[in-house]
Amino acid sequence: MRSAIKIRLVVDPLSAAVLDGQSRLLNWLYNLLVDMAGDLRHGYIANPNDTTGHNLYTKRGFRNMLPALKAQFPFLRTVHSSPVKNAALRLAKAIGDHQDCAHGRRKGKPVSWPHFRSWKRKWFSLLYDEPGKGFSLVGDLLTVTLGVDAQGKRLSVQARLAEPLPRRYTSEDIRNLRIVRDGTDFHAVFAVERGLPEGKPIFRAIALDPNHKNLAYGVDAEGTATQIANPWFAKLWQRRTCDLKSRRDSCKKQSVRVIRPDGSWYWRPSRRWLRFDRALAEVHRLRREQTKAYLFTMANRLFRKYDLVAVGDYTPHGGGITPGMRRAMNNESLIGRFKEVLSWVAMKSGKRYDEWREAGSTRTCCECGQVVEGGISPDIREWDCPRCNAHHIRDENAARNGLMRVLIKNPLPCSGRLGGQPVAVLTRRTWRFSGLGVVETPGV
Questions:
Q1: Interatomic CA distance for residues 400 and 366, integer angstroms
Q2: 63 DSSP assignment
Q3: What is residue 120's predicted lDDT score, i.e. its pLDDT?
Q4: Concatenated DSSP letters of 144-168
Q5: Cα end-to-end distance, the chain, whole Å
Q6: pLDDT for 264-303, tens place per residue?
Q7: CA of 62: how far to CAs of 1, 77, 127, 164, 304, in Å?
């Protein structure tokens, strides 16, 4: 198993400018290849042949074009061969994903034909995909090799790691390096090899019902109900984002007309628009980092206590009573990312992650199995069963139904819990995220 370690780089202004230049060249190369791919595509549709199809639809087709492009554009030689190669492979993968989606070989959202990239919107990362080739790490000093200049002299830049590698890893464990820029900061993302731990036996299990009032509501086989509260900062960042977007959009984006040496021109935004745009990018970065810390903290807390964590297969789409609720469900929901983090932490710790079928779990009484006709409105948080008069907390009832379904698939013989039997809730608690980790309080 490969793990990624992201460490901030301390880069001087000259080295930062060099890395930006390398990224710009790769972005330019990618757009050139996208343009060539469009011409090849139209030519292949008009006259299919093996040569055009091989260049367009194989993994190494664009990579094989690079020597000719370097001869035509000598400035590409100033970039190391590994990032150049991976720019071509990235486009080949994007075209492959589009083809798989078009022919029904790929599930999920539709994948369009690759588009041109804007370097100002997203920095093109530098990937060195072979261990020890193009980079070296000695202590906290990272040396990144570039291409060659006009005289054939090898170029390089150096930067220092803001923090050392974890002690359990050495520079020999690094399989590849990716340099990225997040806002104004540069980061080194090291991929390190790590063996998977052996699978552990399942003694404790919990079923989580994901929703939007809280991140998830879970019930375990011992009868403990746990509400995982949404992060406290989510609404604060959302209000800050909306405020900055409103201020930025009130400024002129096409403010200054800039004329290039060749006579062409383009519009440049006003300084006020650029200031708000930089502030918005920084807010997005901070929110992303805080959200990542929140999700990994909750996932690690769950797998410290349980050997099996199963989550309902609900995925946010459409719906919502109000426009604000619909926007939160579709744009701000953390459910999908939480499932990815849980799967990753389970694999890393040797425990198990699973999903259970959530259809009908909310409107089905976990005591007698009565199904409420027409469902239950999202604004009803507690309800009574019309058959057995059992009183249910909406999310708790769904999690109890989920636990029964999970135990049918994964019985816990050591605890005496079998699937199909309702588990009574004995205690309730709430987990909230803070700067010190997870704070547990009784009740929900």
A1: 6
A2: G
A3: 86
A4: EEEEE-TT-PEEEEEEEESSPPPTT
A5: 38
A6: 898 999 999 999 999 999 999 899 999 999 999 999 999 9
A7: 29, 17, 17, 37, 46
CA angle, 12 then 14 then 16, to 5°: 70
Distance of alpha carbon 379 from alpha carbon 377, whole angstroms: 5
Tokens of 434: 């803070």
| Residue 173 CA from chain centroid, whole number | 24
Q: Model pTM?
A: 0.80
Q: State how far the Cα of 20 lies from the Cα of 13, in Å rounded to an integer.
A: 10
Measured CA to CA, the distance from residue 73 to residue 29 in angstroms comes to: 10
3-state helix, strand, coil in the chain (%, to 5): 40, 25, 35
Give the model confidence (pLDDT) of 61-98 as tens digits.
999 999 999 999 999 999 999 999 999 999 999 999 99
Is residue 390 within 8 A of residue 365, CB to CB? The reply is yes
Q: Which residue has the tokens 């890393």?
A: 348
CA angle 148, 150, 154 (to 5 degrees): 20
Q: What is the DSSP letter of 69?
A: H
Give the residue among 439, 141, 105 at the shortest CA–CA distance from 297: 439
